[in-house]
Amino acid sequence: MSVSLQSDAIDVAAEYAQLVGDSPGAAVATFTGYVRNHSDAHAVTELELEHYPEMARKVLENLGQSAAERFDLSNWRIVHRFGRLAVSETIVWVGAVADHRGEAISACELMMDTLKTDAPFWKREQGPAGEQWVASRDSDAERRARWQSGDVQ
Amino acid sequence: MSVTIKLFSALREALGESEFELDLSDVSEASAQIDVAAIKALLSQRGAEWKEALNQPNLVHALNHKVVFTDAAVSEGDELAFFPPMTGG
Q1: Does the residue B88 lie in any domain?
Q2: What is the pTM (predicted TM-score) of this model?
């Protein structure tokens, strides 16, 4: 039940082993996000992630705790990178352990949908055409809103 | 009275500052309570770039690491951050 903000690559296998530990629940779900080589129609060669460390940690800790309460998780973990990232590197990893698959999967989805709009990170893309800050997407805000409106349980 | 102002992402880049102390002693003598809107108005007097950057419709304000509306009251020693919508994950 913890958060890591790190510039180092995410060791997914080690994170998974740590999450499950010696006594796994009946269901484990994880999500891994990678740097894409494109954004909409343009090519991306590198990504820089700026963050607000103190606030990011608090937001992600509260998010993990609220997911744990909502879905009765026995363990959870959120790992988010910052700094310069090459294409195909991991940006984010979340994991949830629960009694049933529905709760574990939903918890990962809730954590991802919420962190995209609520955790203070900003992506800056670099490509052949230069650098630019990534604009927020309405679709992300819509996915985030589903968890508050009661559309998903 | 003073508060710490932090700027991130495109806002930090546009205004060329990431963190500074803002002295509010003149303002705090004049009014009983200072809110985020009053600080935005004060910083907007620094020039056209500040006014434009701080009055973007989608600007986010975080007071002591929590997103707030502009009517949130600000106290001595608070940390107030301004930034564009977040794009992590």
Answers
A1: no
A2: 0.93
